[in-house]
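Researcher: Here's the sequence for the chain we discussed earlier.
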Amino acid sequence: MTIPVTTDDGDAIPAGTKSTIVGIWRDGAAYEVESAQPLGALVTVAVDDLAPVSP
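Model: Thanks. This is the structure I predict for it:
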């Protein structure tokens, strides 16, 4: 993610954290992503707040 975000559970996920897309909302306007740190954290972010990464 390109910005720091806070999950619904109150966990902070810093900018630059690599995450996995697990849901796509409103035809790609927003994405639900899961982060490994903190373990299993879910957050919905706008497409502009994501950046692709190479494996």
